[in-house]
Structure formats: C-alpha cells, structure tokens
Amino acid sequence: MRRLTSIALLAATLALTVPAVAQVRAPDGAPNPTASSVNEEMLFKQDPKIHGRISIPNATAANLIQPQGREWREFRESWLPWIGGLVVLGMLAALGLFYFTRGRIRLEHSEESGKKILRFNSFERFSHWMTATCFIILSLSGLNYIFGKRLLMPLIGPEAFATLAQYGKYAHIYLAWPFMLGVLFMLVLWIKDNIPGKIDWIWLKQGGGLLGDAHPSAGRFNAGQKMVFWMVVGFGLAMGATGIMMIFPFAATDINGMQIMQVIHSLIGVVFIAGILAHIYIGSLGMEGAYDAMGSGEVDLAWAKVHHDLWVKEQQAKTASGPQLGRGQVPAE
C-alpha cells in the first residue's frame, strides 16, 4: 500500500512538471529558448522599423530604429564628401587648365568699339544679382554642411564652428525664399529667348568660339547660355521643392522620404555649384567684356556683334522702325 502511494505521488509530480517544462520552450518549439529569442534581425523581418511606446503627441518619436537611417548615414558621412569634393574640385581644376591652355577670350576691337548697346535692363540685372547673391551664400552654407566639421572645425574650434554653422543654417533657410523667387523671375523674363533651335546645334558643333578663333552666330543667348539658363531653372526648382520639404519636415512624407529629399538636395547642390563655377568663369575672367552685360547692363557694340550678331541685327531693326529701345540704350548703328 505504501509503495502504491509513492508511485501515485511520483506520477502526480511528473504530471505537474511536464507543463512547466513545456512552458520554457521557445515560441517556435525550439528546445533552447535563447536560440530563437527576439533579436533585431527578426524584428526587421517583421517590420522595417522598430517602434516603441510614447505618451507625447509626436508619433514619429516612437521610431527607435529604422534601417534606412544607416544607409543615409553611410551616404552622408562617406559618399557625399567624396562626391562633392570630386565634382567641385574637379570643375575648378578643369577651369584652371582651360584658362592656362586657352587663355582669356579678348575683346576684338573695331571702328565700332566704344559704342554701347543695352543688353539687360535694371530689373533683369536686379533679378540676376539677387538670385546670384543668395546662391553664393546658400552654396557656402551647404558646403559647410558637407565639409565643415572635417575642414573648418579643426581650424576655428568646436564652439566657433557651432556658432557659424547655426547662422549658416538660418541663412540657408531664409535666403532660400528670395533665391526661388529670383529663379521664377528669370524664368518669366528670359524663357522666350532660351528656346533651343537649329542655330544652337551649329554653335555647339563649332565649339562656341571657345575652342577656336571663329565665333558662330547666336541670338540674345547662345547655346551655352541656354544650357546655363535651363540648369538654373531645373536645378533651382528641384532644390526649392526638396528644400521646402526639409524646412517643413513630415508635412508631406515620413522619415524615409526626408532622407531621400536630403540625398537629392545634396547631389543636385554639388552639381549646381560646379555648373555655376563655369558660368562665373566665362562671365568674368574667361571672356573680356562679358561682365559688363550684368554690371552696367551695356556692352560694347563690337563685342555684341562678335558674340550675339543675330540679336544685334534684331535690335538694329527695332531702332530703324521706331523707338523700341530701352532708356539709356545707344542705337546699334
């Protein structure tokens, strides 16, 4: 009897123990619970983000980890500085090589030298310089975002760099608006003169007078200037759209979209800067007499006939048929 009681007690103990042992098994049935415990990789397979629980209204703060952030950080810290450095420094090197091999394009003197013709009126020059000034400051503050902590902070120290970067951020945000306005002004003012045509293809095939001594015919804007115009309009609008989405974060997209906007904004920005460096070179050091067009608004008549002969003929035709010229313009006769 006593033996039967012991066997009954042992059976009861086993019956109570087996469920307890079963409870320590992993959810997927694995014998070792730690072998299939919840880890980061498993969570990423279930959802592209790891969420937490918060009590504040900002729901985006609940995102603890999202893998695209690592990809963006890799681009921001590794790829972008290399891309930006190669594009901008590469353009400067190319312009320097062109200058020392081709030299400056000199003003060709003739009996018409000294006579002036109005090329851009005051509002056109205002729109250009407002946009250009904003672009320079936006470019410097943007380059500081990419290279500042690597190149500038070791020279001036972290406190001074933090102050400079903060003011650069303010300048970047507030000057973006007049820059975008200037782009719209130039689009309205000059789009009719920047429609590509057959004459532009001829200009390109002849190297635009940059690779030889011949100067192909051109209207008010040659093919090179038209390329700059459409670059400014296209890149300017793209930079404005992506910039607005970053100024007002999460208004139209989530954190992944914000990261994509930053990638697009920065890549367009460095290419934009390189293109404008070439434009600045041609409009100042590269070609004698070119700066006057946006300086005083008037250019030498001989210069205009060499570089924009078709446009000069149009202006002469207007002068011959009536007073269509702007105030202060000398007839091109």
Automatic annotation (TrEMBL):
Question: Transmembrane residues, as ranges?
Answer: 79-100, 126-147, 171-191, 228-251, 263-282
**Biological-process GO terms, alphabetical:** anaerobic respiration; formate oxidation; respiratory electron transport chain
Q: What is its main location?
A: membrane
Instruction: Give all residue intervals belonging to the Cytochrome b561 bacterial/Ni-hydrogenase domain.
Output: 119-286
- Its signal peptide is 1-22
- List the Gene Ontology MF annotations in alphabetical order: electron transfer activity; formate dehydrogenase (NAD+) activity; formate dehydrogenase (quinone) activity; metal ion binding
Please give, as recorded in its UniProt entry, the membrane topology of this protein: Multi-pass membrane protein
Show the InterPro entries listed in the entry.
Answer: Cyt_b561_bac/Ni-Hgenase, Di-haem_cyt_TM, FDH_cytochrome_b556_subunit, Formate_DH_gsu
Report the family membership: Belongs to the formate dehydrogenase gamma subunit family.
Against PANTHER family, the record matches this protein to: FORMATE DEHYDROGENASE GAMMA SUBUNIT, FORMATE DEHYDROGENASE, NITRATE-INDUCIBLE, CYTOCHROME B556 FDN SUBUNIT
Give the protein name, as stated in the record.
Cytochrome b561 bacterial/Ni-hydrogenase domain-containing protein
The species is: Methylobacterium frigidaeris
